[in-house]
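Folding Task

Wanted — backbone structure
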Amino acid sequence: MSRNRELAGNNTSDLSEMNRSAIVRILQQKEICSRAEVAKIMGLTQASITKLVGALIDMGIVSEVGIVKGNGNRRSIGLRLNAEKNLVIGVKFSRHVFAIGVFDISGKLYTQQETEYSLTDFADDVMASMKEQIHALLKEYNNIVAIGLAVPGPYLRYEGRIAMVTRMPNWKTVNFIDEFKNEFDKPVFIEQDANAGALAEWWFGNHGRPLSSLAYFLAGEGVGSGIVDHDRLLIGNLGIASEIGHISIDYKGPTCECGNKGCLELYSSTMALLKKAEKELPDLFKEPYENRSEACKRVFDAARGGDKKALKLVNEIAEYLGYGCVTLINAYDPEIIVIGDSIAQGDELLLPTIKRIVNERVLPAISSQVRIEISKLSIDPTLYGAAAIATDRVLRKPSEYLTLTKN
């Protein structure tokens, strides 16, 4: 992946592309809208909007849907997004499991499947299984326009490899760009999992609009964050910006696999919670659990039931999440922080402590302006985010990835 295109200036065609993308976003949020309404929202002339919409209709992204009433009861032709005609495949790759789903560009899920694997399995075998499933979906759905892949961070996006994944040393040598760039006849876009989650919340989360910036705080088997600022992912030099999981919160703490000491991930991940829970609450784990997410749910359910030891563990991990939020606020100044993944199952048990820590450690004039929420997405935010990666890239440059039938 080249950096040059991200540094290129804008020309007239770029501006048209940006405006077409903005129209798609408006229709995604409003479902049905007239050209006049779109022109008013965007501050463009109706003639300009008509030309832009015409191109989107030719691409098959937008269609006309009859008459709608506008201001002053004026009747206009309505526009809607043809979400169902433009599908994407989202692929979540994580420790122990990869998940694949088919979504439309409005975020509707059509099908989903998961495949578990062992950390001792050969990377080549896991990749072969993943590719086989994607090929099968491409045969089943003939209107797939792109594929998005979410991988654990820190992901070196220009090199195509994961710099380090705790407990997964075999995957350090896998180059995801090389593996996927010539495998399919559809474009493949790859981002680290926290960036994917941020895009999912930005595109599909119900957080009100317009937002200026959003931080997604991933707290699962790994810990990370993704930042969307003024409609753009914060990437950084190597593609590892906002890798909050490896910020030290205790410089005398235990050594992390990354080489640092006292990394946030060592205190606020599923591993951190379960390591303590299995000692303090052994009765919860007499029955085997399918995955760590289910095991964490048992701890949160016990806390909801009033178990004092479980409540103590939940409060501890909420404090560490609070420290992470303090760092996100001071470093990135987000309008909203959305916490997602397995630890977010704690929901209402976590938020009071997280907000207390933030209020204690961030200037009141700043903390009062930041919303902190638990993700409400009904689908795994990282899988959803993998679909959002593809949706975001395709709809930012629709004429590059979708065929124009006429000029």
